[in-house]
Amino acid sequence: MFSRDRWNEIIEALTSNWFRTLLTAFGVLWGIFILVILLAAGKGLENGVKQGFGGIATNTMFMWTQVASKPYKGMPKGRRYNFEVEDVAAIKNDVPNLRIVSPRNQLGGFRGNNNVTRGLNTGAYNIYGDYPEIIQQEPMDILEGRFINYSDINEKRKVAVIGGGVKAGLYDKEEEVLGSYIKINGVNFMVIGIYKKKGNNGDAEEMQKEIYVPFTSFSQAFNMGNRVGWMAITADDGHPITDLKQDVMDVVKKRHLIHPEDDRAVGNFDLYQEFNRVNQLFIALKGVAYFVGTLVLLSGIIGISNIMLIVVKERTNEIGVRRALGATPWSIRGQILLESIFLTIISGMMGIILATGLIWLVNQQLEGVDTSETMFLNPSVDLLVVFTALAILIISGLLAGLIPAQQAIKVKPVDALRTE
Description:
Protein name: ABC transporter permease protein
Number of helices: 14
Domain ABC3 transporter permease C-terminal: 291-412
Oligomer: single chain
Order of helices and strands: HHEEHEEEEHEHEHEEHEHEEHEHHHHH
GO cellular component, one term: plasma membrane
Subcellular location: Cell membrane
Membrane topology: Multi-pass membrane protein
C-alpha cells in the first residue's frame, strides 16, 4: 500500500547526502548504460555484416567442376570434365527438397580484356548466362525495364540486363538505354533492363558492373553447346543445403564417372555454412556483451549494498527508536529494501534513457550515409532487452538491500538507543 510518509522518508534518507547518493547511483547507471550500448553496437555490426550478403538466398551452395584426382571405371586420374544441361534435370529429379537449381555460364570480368562495346565506348564486365530464377538467389532491384523471363529463354532472345556501373561506363548521362544495343564479344544484345545490387566490403561498385543474358542465347552465341560452367543451388526453407550437398555431388559424380570418394573433383562453396558461422559469431558477441555489462552492473550493485550498510549504521539510533515504539522487523526490513530498490531503479532507468538517446543520435547520423559501403547499420535493442534490464534492476535492488536489511533487524532496541 502507498504510504506518503514512507516515501518522504525514503527521499529524505537518499537526499541527506547528495554526493554519496549520486556516486552510488552512477555505478548502476554506468553498468546498464554499458550493457545496452554493447548490445546495440553488436546488433549494428550484425546488421552491417549481413547487409554484405546483399539479400542473397543464404540457403544456397555454388558448385563447379575441377580435375578428377582418382581414376575410376577406366577413366584416368587428372582428367577434366564439364557439367551439362542434363545434370540440372537429374539433380532436380534425384535430390528432394531443392527449391532452385540454376545453371550458369560466365564470360569476362573486370580483370579481363574489354569484352563489351557500344559505339566508341568499351569495358570489361562479367557476363552471365542465366535462367530467370537467379533473381531469387541473387536479389536485385530493377531500376528500369525488366529482368529476363522464360520467353527470352525459349526463344533464345539476345537481350541483356545491365548494372548501373555498365550504364555509366558505356552510355552518356542523358542517353536512352532501354532498347539500345551492346556488343558482347562481337554479338549484339538489346538492353531490356537496368539493375542495382546491394553489397559492402568494397564489392558494391563491382556488383553493378555485371550483365545478365538468357542462358540459351548465351550458349548459342558463344558456342557453349550443352555445357554448364557452374550452378547455384538453393534448398527449401527448413532443409539446410549443407545436409543435401553430398546428395547433389553424388548425382554429379555418378553421371560423370567420378570416384565416389573423390572430393576434389567437384568444387563448391556452401553459403549456408558460412552464414551460420557469422550467426554463431554474433551469438558469441552478444554473450560477451551480456557478460561484460552484467559484471559492470554487478559492481554498481555492490556499491549500493555497501552504501546501504553505511546508511543502516548511521541510522542505528533511529532504528532503535522505531523498534522501541513497536515497529515490526518486516517494517524495518521493507524500508531498507524499498530504499535500495528505488535507488537502483532510478539510476538504472537513467542509464537506459542515456543509452537510448545515444543510439538515437547514432541512427540519425547514419540516415544520411550510404550504408552499402559500411559494416555498421541500424544499431538497436529490442523491447525484450529493455524489460530484461528492468527485471535485472529490480532483482539487483532486492539483493543489494537484503544484507543491509538483515543487519537492520538484528539491532536490539536497547543497544540501538545507547549509540550516539
